[in-house]
Amino acid sequence: xxxxxxxxxxxxxxxxxxxxxxxxxxxxxxxxxxxxxxxxxxxxxxxxxxxxxxxxxxxxxxxxxxxxxxxxxxxxxxxxxxxxxxxxxxxxxxxxxxxxxxxxxxxxxxxxxxxxxxxxxxxxxxxxxxxxxxxxxxxxxxxxxxxxxxxxxxxxxxxxxxxxxxxxxxxxxxxxxxxxxxxxxxxxxxxxxxxxxxxxxxxx
Length: 204
Prior knowledge:
The protein has helices spanning 2-21, 52-68, 86-100, 104-116, 125-134, 139-146, 149-164, 189-202; strands at 29-31, 42-47, 74-79, 172-175, 179-181.
């Protein structure tokens, strides 16, 4: 019985292994860094609050990533500045502030909803500040975080990582700081995650 179960498991895993072997550089992913990968496996989602697809991704795919992430692989997010003109920069600041204050689980969905559901037009940092306050953040805490070294450093890193990965569209996944998953070659978000998980563990 045990032998039969092992054989059945092998048959089930065989198609998955074959699929992984079909992932090709230049088709399903691009090497963006010829140097070593990150010290620990990680998957980073690049996104923008102004992107409708990113809003959908945040509600349907991100929870799935958090629930199915391979053991030992970290999941990170980075906001891009190139959508939304000057407000793209301020939304990157908002993302960094939310993480600095540890309120991202409340504030990020609120910003997405304000833009895409309520059709609110953000014109300056104070508009963003009001969303934070409406979600329980003290205005003084927001102001202090907005000017902090940690927030500025995170913004600089996100901008640098976006440029290094040559991100031109979002949502986009970068794996181990070395591979950019090519969304144009996939048929579903499930396949996107399959490729990302495969790449994340391939360097182990």
